[in-house]
C-alpha cells in the first residue's frame, strides 16, 4: 500500500518522471512516438521496478502503460516466482491518464493503485491528442432510454473508483495535504515537472510536420460518427504556438481569423476573450468557444467554465468598443463538465475564476473600465503576471484560512518578487499589487492595515484618482480601499498620509457612475483623515502650536462644515441610479419582528450600494464629532440622526446581495456599524450577513464576530447570539 504521507508519494512519483521517464520519452519522441510514459513502483519503498515510454513506432498497441506492463512481466520479472504481486506490492503510475486500452491492460494485470500526472483534458488541450476522450465517448458511452444529450455529456468517462482499481491524479494527492504552505510547495513542484513536457510536445509536433509517423497515425480515429451521420465534424485542427505573446498585434489591432501569421497568437478562448470579432446575429448562440493552444504551460486552452464560475453574457452592441469593461465577447453557454475540479487543470480553473469572479469584484466600483482585458493582455505577454494571477485565484479558492495569515507562501512569494525585480517598472508594480491582493484573502479586516504597503510599497495607493493606466489603476483603488477599511474597523491612524484633493463640485450631471463613486470614496477618506488627524488631536488638547502639522481649530471646523454640506448635497442631488429602487418606511426597533428586523432598502446595482454606504458612513462619522455649538436644524431630522444612518448602513448590507458589492470598505463598515445594533433580532440578522460575506469573499470574520458578540453581551448583560461564522 502507498504511504499515508502524500508528500512521500508525490516526491517519488515526480522524481521518477524527472529522472527516469522524461529521458526515455525524449528518445522515443525523437523517433516519432508520443509523449506518454509509465512506471511501476514498489509500494513499500516507492522505488521504480520498471519504467517505459510509448513505442508506437513498433506497434500501435505499445502505449506507454502497455509497454511498461509488458516489460515488467517479460524482462524485469520474467520468473513469476520472483515477481512482486501487482495488487499488493505495486503502484502503477502513468504520465497521462490512461486510455481505454491501457485501463483494460492495467485491470487485467491486477494493479489496484493508479496515479497519473496529466488528465484526458490535458492530453487533448496541451498535447493535441484528443483520441482518449473520443474513443471513450464513441465506443463505450451508451445512451440510456430517455437520457438527454446534456445528461450523457455530464456522465464521467469511466469509474475512477471501482472494484478493480482506484485512479487518482497527482493534483488530488496535492489537495489531500492539509498544511497550506506544504500544499503550495507541492503545487509548485507539480507545475515545474509538468513544464518539462513543453519541449517534448514541441518536438513531437515538429516531427509530425516533418513526416515522421507512428504506426497508430495510419489507423487513428477519423471521427467515423460524423462521417456516418453525414454531418460536418466540429473537431478542429490543433495548432502549437511557441512562446507567450499577446493576442494583439504590435499595432493593437485584433487579428483576423482568416489570416495565418506565425508571429501572432490568436487567443479567443474564455481566458483571454478580448479579441474583437464581428458581432453575431442577435439570435445566435455559441455552444462552445473556439480554442487556441499556448504551448508554454503558462496559458492553457479551455472550452468550458467551472460550474461555480459566473457565466459571462454575450455582448452584441458593444463588441467593437475599445474599453467595454466586462462586456467582452465571450460564449453565452458552457459545458459544465470539462472544467470541473475533477477533470480540468488547476491553472485553467484558476484563470477562469480570476477573470469571471475576482475581476468583476475588483472593478465593481468602475463598471465599463478596461481592467479585465488589460490584466489578461498583460498576463498573456508576461508569464510572471500569469503565474501570480493563478496563485491569487488558488489562494482565494482554498477552503480554510492559513494559520499564519498573509505571511504564508514565503518561498513562492520570494520567487515572484525576484522575477518581478527583473521586469519593467509597470509590470513589477502590477505584479506586486497582485501579490498584495493574494494575501488579502483569508486575512481579517483588523489585519488589513499596511497589507498593500508590505508587498507593493507605500505611497502609491492614492494615484488611482489621477489618470493612471489600467490595470494598475483598479488594483491601486482596491488597495486604497483596503487601507481605508482597516481604519474603519480598528479606528487607528490610517497609513495613507494624504487623500486626493476634492473637487469643488461634489456632483455634476456629466459624471459617470465610476466618477461618482470615486467622489464618494474621496469624501469618506477626507472625513476619516479629518477626524483622526485633526479632530481627535484637537479634542485631546493638541493645538497647532504643539503640532505644526495640524490645521488651526477654525480651519478644522470649516473643513467639517464643508464635508457635512457635501453629505447633504448627496441626499438632495444624487442621480436617479443612486436612489433606492425600494425604500420602505422606517420601522421602530421595538416593533420590528424577528423575521424582519430591518425595513427594506433595495438598490439597482453594486456601485449604488457602495456609493451610498460611503456617504452614510461619512455622515455618521461627522455626526459623531459634531461641534457642540453647530445647529443642524435646517436639515431634515433623519439626516442628523446617527441612529438613522446606522440603520441605513445595516439595510444596505442585508437587503442587497450583488455578488461584487462586498468590497473592503463595505465589509469594514458593516462590521463597524454592527456595534450600534442593540436588539437580538438585528444582531442575528447581521451575523447571517457576515456568513454571506465570508462565503462570497473568503474574508475571515471570526475575530470580528467574537469581538462583536463580547461587546453585545457586555452591553446588555445577557448571552450574545450563538450564530457563528463557519
From TrEMBL:
<dbReference type="GO" id="GO:0003700">
    <property type="term" value="F:DNA-binding transcription factor activity"/>
</dbReference>
<dbReference type="GO" id="GO:0000976">
    <property type="term" value="F:transcription cis-regulatory region binding"/>
</dbReference>
<dbReference type="GO" id="GO:0045944">
    <property type="term" value="P:positive regulation of transcription by RNA polymerase II"/>
</dbReference>
<dbReference type="GO" id="GO:0005634">
    <property type="term" value="C:nucleus"/>
</dbReference>
<dbReference type="InterPro" id="IPR002125">
    <property type="entry name" value="CMP_dCMP_dom"/>
</dbReference>
<dbReference type="Pfam" id="PF00383">
    <property type="entry name" value="dCMP_cyt_deam_1"/>
</dbReference>
<keyword id="KW-0539">Nucleus</keyword>
<dbReference type="GO" id="GO:0006139">
    <property type="term" value="P:nucleobase-containing compound metabolic process"/>
</dbReference>
<feature type="domain" description="CMP/dCMP-type deaminase">
    <location>
        <begin position="4"/>
        <end position="127"/>
    </location>
</feature>
<protein>
    <recommendedName>
        <fullName>CMP/dCMP-type deaminase domain-containing protein</fullName>
    </recommendedName>
</protein>
<dbReference type="InterPro" id="IPR016193">
    <property type="entry name" value="Cytidine_deaminase-like"/>
</dbReference>
<dbReference type="GO" id="GO:0003824">
    <property type="term" value="F:catalytic activity"/>
</dbReference>
